[in-house]
Amino acid sequence: MTPEKRRLAPDDAAANGYILDSGPLNRLAHARWTLVVAAIGLLWLHLQDQIQLLHVALVMGAVVLATMILPRRPKVTRLKVRAEARRLTMMPDIHMRKLAAALPDPCFILDRRGIVRFTNQAGSTIFGNVKEGDPLSFRIRQPDMLAALDHVLDGGQMQKVEYSLKDHSERLYEAWVTPIHLSGDQPAGESPDFILMLLHDQTEQKNIERMRADFVANASHELRTPLASVIGFIETLQGPASGDKVATERFLGIMLDQAERMSRLISDLLSLSRIEMKAHVQPDTRVDLSKIVRHVADALTPLSKEYDVAITPCDCSVSRWVSGDRDELVQVFENLVSNALKYGQSGKRVEILCDLLDDPADGKSYYSVKIRDFGPGIPAEHLPRLTERFYRIDVASSREQKGTGLGLAIVKHILTRHRGKLLIESKAGEGATFDVRLPVTEIDTL
Fold first, then answer.
1. Do the domains spanning 207-277 and 286-439 agree at the CATH topology level?
2. What is 54-86 written as a DSSP string?
3. Beta strands of 277-420 (E only): which ranges?
4. Which CA distances in Å does 67 have to 8, 23, 189, 434?
5. Pick from 13, 142, 296, 323: CA 20 to 30 A from residue 338's CA?
6. Distance between CA 368 and CA 366 in Å, rounded?
7. Is 277 exposed, middle or buried (0-12, 13-18, 19+ CB in 10 A)?
8. Segments making up each domain of the chain, as ranges
């Protein structure tokens, strides 16, 4: 039904500037006066003996009476038409604003001039303080983005552009520039009514792809090097050194070291893969963190004597209950304490500190276990990348200590599964501190 044919209540009509007919009650009042006039006319005709005219008057009176009593279509005035036109004009703006607000990614809706008409909260901050009414081209500096926008403004089809934004760190976006036609398909080359620009953050996905490629390359390299060494010594023993007992003994020792290196690497790869497979499943078994720390300190006592480094554990007589997998948490602390023994050997001591604290970031209570060494420390530029797979500060030193480059990556993934955190603090020449934080779990009291 068209807006002109829609019937409105008198209050609605007044509020929208509409003028309607006077209604059934007023029509009856008009009919009463009409009947009075008709009665006077009939009486005059009767007195004049005009019978034929009397019949005509009766028919005309019936028609007038029916016209006044029967409902009529309301009158449509210019004021009503203008109000309806304003409402129809505002409808696209309302829908566009709702569309922009509903999208989670940064988005901009532009008019035919490239002026920002609508944006959401994410879009208003991505290029700085972008306000409605600003030309978006003033905030974009990448030529590909400007070219895609101009193409769509000139009546072209949807465009997809890779966009990089450098602030404190580089972020990668996939930008979609799409024409919006309010009246259906538009002829080719005609400018659209609006242009939607949507930016989807691809930074995390790109980083994952890069890490996967690096992982495959590094794993292949780590396996290829000892494998080539073993093959070379086998060929030597089969050839020139086949009868040399001294060379055979030395080569077999080297081959054993390389085989053990490959075995450690494969073991760490399998461990990392197993942890990643159940990363989304949080452990629900409650374990005593103090007993785990005590067990690790006792288990690594022979290694500490070998490196001539003293281990000072925290007070393990107090129970500290957390939800976790015991074997995985043992693996976490064994990795961190053994690293402190190997790479902080010059400090001659390793401290294990335990504390209960509230994290202001999320307001939760955590048990904090800090493993601190007093060795040469770690330069600041290496700290952000320490938990990456196969990342080493010093490759030669790591291999000398029989490291695979996966230890801290395993620690990070285990703590992520436990909803925990790993904080690293270090200054060159002042040692390093690895802070493991696990959420507190209250055990039922009997």
1. no
2. HHHHHHHHHHHHHHHHS--PPP--HHHHHHHHH
3. 286-288, 310-312, 321-323, 349-358, 365-373
4. 21, 13, 56, 95
5. 323
6. 6
7. exposed
8. 3-80, 103-201, 207-277, 286-439
Per-residue pLDDT reduced to its tens digit, 25-64: 455 555 555 655 566 665 555 555 555 555 555 656 655 5
**Per the structure block, which two tokens stand in for 128?**
């700085």
List of residues 6+ apart from 290 with CB closer than 8 A: 314, 315, 316, 317, 318, 319, 320, 354
The token duo for 266 is 């494969």
User: What is the pTM for the complete model shown?
Assistant: 0.54
| pLDDT tens string 76-131 | 555 555 554 455 445 566 777 777 777 778 888 888 888 888 888 777 777 777 77
Low-confidence ranges of the chain (pLDDT < 50): 1-25, 75, 84-85, 88-89, 444-446
| Assigned superfamily of 103-201 | PAS domain (3.30.450.20)
Q: Which CATH architecture has domain 286-439?
A: 2-Layer Sandwich (3.30)
Which residue carries 């790591």 as its tokens? 398
In angstroms, the CA 359 to CA 61 distance is 92
